[in-house]
Design brief:
This protein is mainly α. Helix 3 runs antiparallel to helix 4. The protein starts with a helix and ends with a helix.
Length: 91
């Protein structure tokens, strides 16, 4: 099971970093966070796997475009909902 609260706190910290202009550090940490979620894929239903892959793709595209506002939106609004869904599915 994942510690959803810790992931949410981590995502919030990434948003703060991005808003403070620490985009390189935030992108590195964001990649680490996505890597920690990857092993869960095998335990998720197809719908959640698809949602997680879609979110990861969107996050990476924001990083490539240097779209920090878009990345913040995904981390603040999309990721917490997905984490709650994953947590519920794994219980």
């Amino acid at each position: 099971m994942i510690d959803v609260a810790s992931f949410k706190v981590g995502a919030d910290a990434l948003v703060v970093m991005l808003r403070e202009g620490k985009d390189e550090e935030a992108c590195f940490e964001c990649g680490r966070m996505l890597q920690l979620l990857t092993p869960l894929m095998a335990n998720l239903c197809t719908e959640l796997q698809s949602s997680l892959l879609h979110l990861a793709k969107q996050v990476l595209q924001c990083q490539e475009r240097h779209d920090w506002a878009g990345l913040c939106d995904y981390l603040e609004f999309e990721l917490p909902v997905l984490l709650d869904d994953i947590d519920s599915a794994l219980r």
